[in-house]
Protein: Tryptophan--tRNA ligase, cytoplasmic
Organism: Schizothecium vesticola
Amino acid sequence: MATTVNAVALDESPIPEHVAATGKQTVDPYNVSGEVGEDGVMKAIDYSKLVDEFGTKRIDKALLERFEKVTGKKPHRFLRRGIVFSHRDFELILDRYERGEPFFLYTGRGPSSDSVHVGHTIPFEFTKWLQDTFDLVIMLTDDEKYLFSEKRTVEEVQGYCSSNAKDIIAIGFDPAKTFIFSDFDYVGGAFYRNIVRLSKHITLNQARAIFGFNDSSNIGKIHFGSIQGATSWASSFPHIFGTDEKKSNAIPALIPCAIDQDPYFRMTRDVSARLHFAKPSLIHAKFLDALQGPGTKMSASIDESAIFMKDTPNQIKNKINKYAFSGGKVSVEEHREKGGDTTVDVSFQYLRFFLEDDAELERIRLEYESGKLLTGELKAICIQELQKYVAAFQERRAQVSDETVDLFMERRALRWVGNPQAPRVVPVVEAAAEATGDGKLTKNQLKKLEKQKQIEAKKAQKAKEKEGGQAAGEAAAE
Ligand code: TRP
């Protein structure tokens, strides 16, 4: 049993020996599986342990309250329900937002197949929601999916890029604020310079310790982290953030991602600090369980493990009814008496992800746990919600053409809105310190900064006067 569940949990990589041998929980970019108990059954992923092991911070009530205060937005249901549960330096992003300073969103997807499932849409749904406020860069790591698979060809992964881009666009991103790129197409120029900067600061020993590589790992895998990492730096995108690296290197990314991606960015944050580039902030999501239950992750290559965004209403119904792991009791009598376990019930877990109404969700929980609601009834509610979610997606997906993809993937400037409550601030030139190597500004640099500030102030003053002049009529201004 443990092995079958494991196969579902993994997207493509074989089960690493240490997991098979120790049965320990493993969460890294290439493997996600819960601990295998003595009975051979996989347990749910212990996210609390991950926060401690990775050294991230829990998203708590105080942070959510601050979020709402600063942005004026009610936190997304993923935040309210602890699905987006952990972060690194998210509060610094809120500080910047409050001060009107720029930052950008960065997320990505490895195009491993044409079939996107509901689990894949979770970080994108969340990112789309955040985008109402921020600029966005989306990376398609076709190179990664080639390097990390025995079978796939370059042509194959490149082929998935366009259909995956369409799926991502169908989530509802704003073309004026979104740049999507494929690594195979975009590596070069400013981006490649940053990739090499990052790679120079990572030793083979570190890559092994962070990602678990060994002597047989191909060297492309070992290097790949510098590509995923360098996307966190705004100076990799001169068409969006300008060619003055002193300015762009001071603009941080906020990276919404599933928690398994954290190792890439832990590494990137370390190197950012050494280069005096802005460190990326992170906000981490949990995984959507596979239909088979806790501890597993939906897999694009195993049809029975997931609800796919291409599935028909009937397929959704059949999959939930047939495969969705139930927390209900064996007989109706026992269920009525003892109630179901919502913490392991897949249908209930899916409702936590997709049902917007908090009060309704709470009602369902209480009724299922008290035995009033039966498994079949709970499944029916879940089926309905998923059918709605998938149908709405399919409607938007049908509108996305090849031209739409070209539009999103064109190198161009994006519209930056920022915080409407705060005046727009020119990025601070923190990265100027790179030359000194120790992070402190030299006297000369401080002088320069001071001078620059004065010039900016004068400029602003002039612009104000000019505006006033124009308002008074152009003839009068001349
Ligand atoms: N490595 C991710 C994957 O396999 C893709 C990815 C690249 C990503 N950059 C990212 C995911 C940033 C989240 C955030 O799918």
The chain has two domains: 5-285, 303-397. Residues 29, 106-110, 139, 141, 144, 228, 255, 257, 261 surround tryptophan (CB under 6 Å).
